[in-house]
Amino acid sequence: GLGDVYKRQIWDGPVWPGGRGFVEVTAPCSSRLVMYTTWCSISTRRPGGDLHLFPETTIDVNRIARTVSGEAMVLARAGRAWRVVEPLATRADAEMVMAHIGEIAGVRASNVLLDQPPDASAFGLDPPVARVVVSGPDGRTALRIGDRLGGTTQDRYAMVEGIASVVQLPERDVLRLLAQGQARGILPKRIV
């Protein structure tokens, strides 16, 4: 039957939130070949998909950069010591930074709203309202945070750079990512 002549090829791109990827299927149709693309679930992910937005985040993180409305805060590690390098150089509380890294590792999208959006600016993602970049020995992950979803919710649109899916970022995770350094205890209360 036709099932014997199908050629299946996994698209060589990123696995998107929810464990989705592309499968291209070529099948005979009359005397010509028809190519189509469909969504599938990649079997290396848990059923239901993994919506962690910083899945590679570990205690080995060495840099966290956050930009909100053009204002940056950058934390960098040298050995065991953490420092704030922007907006002004000062020490950072290493314990609080490590707790913050744990919070970042737990950030999850609550829903995938749209795959391959035609225009990211419609969600406030190009340019983004905020951007969080976490870097470590295994690479970096950059999350763009956009407009509020609307209504009474503080949830926001978000997109991991390099993955063409718009996701819903819940309010609790928006606060985890965007709270001011002093409020989080990362920055000293009084900078000398």
Describe this structure in words.
By secondary structure, this protein is mainly beta. Helix content is 12%, strand content 41%. It has three helices and twelve strands, in the order βββββββαβββββαα. It has helices spanning 94-105, 171-178, 181-184, and strands at 7-10, 20-29, 32-41, 63-68, 71-78, 81-86, 90-91, 111-115, 130-136, 139-148, 156-160, 165-169. The protein has a nine-stranded antiparallel β-sheet with strand order 7-6-5-4-9-10-11-12-8. The longest helix is centred in the middle third of the chain and has 12 residues, at 94-105. The protein is globular and about 40 Å long. It starts with 6 loop residues before the first strand and ends in an 8-residue tail after the last helix.
Give keywords.
12 strands, three-stranded antiparallel β-sheet, 192 residues, globular, 3 helices, disordered C terminus, mainly beta
Low-confidence stretches: 1-14, 22-48, 188-192
Number of strands: 12
Instruction: Identify the strand order in the major beta sheet.
Output: 7-6-5-4-9-10-11-12-8
Give the overall shape, derived from the CA principal axes.
globular
Number of helices, where a helix is a run of at least 4 consecutive DSSP H or I residues: 3
Spell the H/E element sequence: EEEEEEEHEEEEEHH
Mean pLDDT: 77
In terms of DSSP E residues, the strand content is: 35-45%
Return Rg in Å: 20 Å
Question: Kindly, what is the distance between the CA atoms of the first and last residues, rounded to a whole number of angstroms?
Answer: 77 Å
Helix content: 10-25%
Biggest pleated-sheet summary: 9 strands, antiparallel
Query: Structural class of the helix and strand makeup?
Result: mainly beta
